[in-house]
Amino acid sequence: MSEQFIDEARALRDSDAFDIQAVHHWLRSQLQPQGHDYGDELPQVKQFSGGASNLTYHLKYPDQYANNDLILRRPPAGHKAAGAHDMKREYSVMARLKPVYPFVPKMIAFCEDNSVLGSDFYVMERMRGIIPRGNLPRGMSLSKEQARALCISVFDKLIDLHQVDYQANGLDDLGKGAGYVQRQVEGWSGRFVKSRTWNVPSFNKTMTWLKANMPADVKTCIIHNDYRMDNVVLNPENPGDIIGVLDWEMATLGDPLMDLGGALAYWVQADDDFLMRAIRRQPSHLPGMLTRQEIVEYYCGKMGLDAKLWPFYEVFGLFRLAVIVQQIYYRYHHKQTDNPAFKNFWLFVHYLNWRCNRIIKKARKAGFK
Fold first, then answer.
1. Entry pTM
2. Please, what's the b/e burial string for 245-278 (b: 16 or more CB within 10 A of its CB; e: otherwise)?
3. Which fold has domain 3-125?
4. By the 8 A CB rule, do 321 and 265 touch?
């Protein structure tokens, strides 16, 4: 492989621009006590286009400086769900996880002075590598064997996270722990009601079914809560080697099967219908990639968990994704963002409602309520 496939930022969108001078002065004030100084030269600033939630920027200083290749994360403008886009918590979670889960980026500094950027934000070291988005970088290809190995490696990293002993490492306060399934069903149902617009379905059938079929937590562990292939960073010299896991905004203590359900809601396989394939944002369709069912069987085998109640976690993952999409669309609908990528998100909400209903119908025939 080659460095030509490394994920690179693009030009700033005007609506997402910020005061580079102010950020530069703040960053200097944070690093000077540590013996680092950028001088007066401002960084080159570009923007990564992958995310639809928090905004991610690349700050590149001249090579002669230490900490010259940085990432800045900040929340979007407009309506924010309660508890969402908590930059301080995201920074703290990653700083505390780094010693026990080495695939977390190294944190540099956190800012809660709104006079600098207008919101909280943080800066971390950049992990230079390949991020497998909707399609592999142009010119890059994987054999069937390589694709399978990459897929297994992706979910092995999730298994590694779920097996971290959070109690032995003093991470008991990352979340509320027991009762996670019930809190999530109730919480995401409430978020959907608050963010619903006139042009999307009610999801009443799905919310009622989830509440009626809630299982007890299978265990409590650290969960990523937004685990996707486009949130991992691959070694450019060996794409089967994962060097980083990104986007820890929603990490907490919770049920590992809920985490897997959320991850597989994004997993588009080669034989999915046209609409599902149209929204694919990771190369999960490549020959050699495991199907959703194969991933569930592989994961549960490694974790020693029973997959008999999987339809519940599958429906929850799809419903949760529908709420996330709707929250993003809410901002566009109410003109709190002008990003054209969000214009037709309401159509995807309809599609996810249809998928939930289809799984529920099949699950009822198999003995669910």
1. 0.90
2. bbbbbbbbbbbbbbbbbbbbbbbbbeebeeebee
3. Phosphorylase Kinase; domain 1 (3.30.200)
4. yes
